[in-house]
Design brief:
The chain is mainly α and 477 residues long. The protein has three domains: 7-139, Fumarase/aspartase (N-terminal domain) (Fumarase C, Chain B, domain 1), CATH 1.10.275.10; 145-398, Up-down Bundle (Fumarase C, Chain A, domain 2); 406-462, Fumarase/aspartase (C-terminal domain) (Ribonucleotide Reductase Protein R1, domain 1, Orthogonal Bundle), CATH 1.10.40.30. 56% of the residues lie in helices and 7% in strands. The protein has helices at 27-35, 45-65, 70-84, 103-120, 133-137, 143-179, 199-221, 244-256, 266-271, 274-300, 330-354, 364-388, 397-405, 415-418, 420-433, 437-443, 449-455; strands at 7-12, 15-20, 184-189, 192-198, 226-227, 261-262, 311-312, 394-395. The chain has a two-stranded antiparallel ribbon. It has a two-stranded antiparallel sheet with strand order 3-4. A two-stranded parallel ribbon has the order 5-6. Residues 471-477 have low confidence and may be disordered.
């Protein structure tokens, strides 16, 4: 293959290739690029960072044990620090959909760090001397323990941002709950009239739902803290020094600030992707709850003339290219789409987690991409919903009161006084005639005027208790 000034010749066990001269990656990475021109989507930065942290920790560990010459270890660490500072990220070029287990991604990282380390030591790209991608950067490692460890580190590194974004969103919803506490509206079940509820109760419940969801995510993340690094090829630790696993955990803990533990069964941690799948599943549940809330906001804001119009969302952009003045619930619509994507991501993770065979799950690259993508888009969507929607929501108390008085479900409050059957007749008659329950009860003299006001106290219906506070079936005025 002819060489040009724009390329350099590199060789691997399969032969020679012309690698771009300015590339920090090498021949094995280039083979992966050629083999997998699938999506144009490369590894998320969070995954690159997690993998490079493992390489840095390994260099520090082998420097500690004396297995790796100090000057080589220091050069690898310096190269890793450059990546961790945001440099060279364009050199991680392997498609998400690649050969099983993530060998291509692992070698991409090894080659980038080796080439940069050699430059730091005065060498040339592509020569792999004195630092070699496999012999030095990948020392005592296998793709099979690096990639599952990187998945765990990537998830844990993003956890604080996810928790923070959802905590802030929950706080904003709860603040609206307090602000709207005096706004009484019609509840709805099956999208039909139901008993009164305060708008504030709805929003407070939304906040509580998200807090429960994030609590489940945090609980599932505890399993990710057990690292199988040091398991090497099949989890047994071949070519690994005895002190390597504990030193790796020590260095990773120090550089990330994360609570990490050495796994007690590295074979199990290599065989199973259950911890990642369980974490992804809780992200899915969180997304389901978030999507339900976004849909509720869209429904309550529907109108403004032909819908519920119980709340007003902040206008963030014109809603139509043809209908002047139209404003759409754009932020909640975006949130719905994000949540649907997370559900799909989790389905991919679940099937991939099941599809491991014997000592290894070869579907780890797509697991890594999907679970980390879910975390990223959930975090940013929650932040956007908080800052660009929830904080600016206004209650339309007048419209809430309008619908409430017309609710056929108010007859429910009459049941303890006049019995279920008669209350049902009142409800049906109200709908048929288009008459308010309150007016119909007065007209038919079902209860005394005083008792009607006591039983049909709308605010009191939003708290536990029997409407009117006394009376029983058959007691009429």
């Amino acid at each position: 293959m002819p060489k040009s000034p724009q390329t350099r010749t590199e060789k691997d066990p399969l032969g020679e290739l012309q690698v771009p001269s300015d590339a920090l990656y090498g021949v094995q990475t280039l083979r992966a690029v050629q083999n997998f021109p699938i999506s144009g989507i490369t590894a998320l930065p969070e995954f690159v960072v997690a993998t490079v942290r493992i390489k840095k920790a390994a260099a520090l560990t082998h420097k500690d044990t004396g297995r790796l010459e100090a000057r080589l270890a220091d050069a690898i660490v310096q190269a890793a620090d450059e990546v961790l500072a945001g440099r060279h990220l364009d050199q991680f070029v392997v498609d998400v959909y690649q050969a099983g287990a993530g060998t291509s991604h692992n070698m991409n990282c090894n080659e980038v760090l080796a080439n940069r380390a050699n430059e730091i030591l005065g060498g040339e790209r592509g020569k792999y001397s004195p630092v070699h991608p496999n012999d030095h950067v990948n020392m005592a490692q296998s793709t099979n323990d690096v990639i599952p460890t990187a998945i765990r580190l990537g998830c844990l590194a993003q956890l604080e941002s996810l928790v923070g974004a959802f905590g802030a969103l929950a706080t904003a919803l709860e603040a609206k709950g307090r602000e709207f506490d005096e706004v009484v509206k019609s509840g709805r079940t099956h999208l039909q009239d139901a008993m009164p509820i305060r708008l504030g109760q709805e929003f407070t419940a939304y906040g509580g739902t998200l807090r429960r969801g994030i609590s489940r995510v945090k609980e599932s993340a505890e399993y990710l803290r057990d690292l199988g690094i040091g398991g090497s090829a099949v989890g047994t630790g071949v070519n690994v020094e005895a002190q390597y696993p504990s030193l790796m955990v020590k260095h990773l803990r120090e550089m990330t600030g994360l609570e990490l533990r050495g796994g007690t069964d590295r074979v199990q941690l290599m065989q199973s992707m259950g911890d990642a799948a369980g974490f992804s599943a809780q992200l899915r549940v969180l997304a389901l709850d978030l999507s339900k809330i976004a849909s509720d906001l869209r429904l309550m804001a529907s109108g403004p003339r032909t819908g519920l119009d119980e709340i007003r969302l902040p206008a963030v952009q014109p809603g139509s290219s043809i209908m002047p003045g139209k404003v759409n619930p754009s932020i909640p619509e975006m949130v719905n789409q994000v949540c649907f994507q997370v559900v799909g991501n989790d389905s991919c993770v679940a099937v991939s987690a099941e599809h491991g065979q014997l000592e290894l799950n070869v579907m780890m690259p797509v697991i890594a991409y999907n679970v980390l993508l879910s975390m990223r888009i959930l975090t940013t969507a929650a932040r956007s919903l908080d800052e660009r929607c929830v904080r600016g929501i206004e209650a339309n108390a007048e419209q809430c009161a309008y619908w409430l008085e017309r609710s056929a479900a108010l007859a429910t409050a009459l049941a303890p006084e006049i019995g279920y059957a008669r209350a049902a007749d009142i409800s049906k008659q109200s709908v048929k005639e288009g008459v308010l329950i309150r007016e119909l009860v007065k007209r038919e003299k079902v209860l005394s005027d005083e008792r009607i006001d006591e039983v049909l106290d709308l605010r009191k219906m939003t708290e536990i208790g029997v409407p009117g506070g006394k009376g029983g079936a058959g007691s009429v005025g």
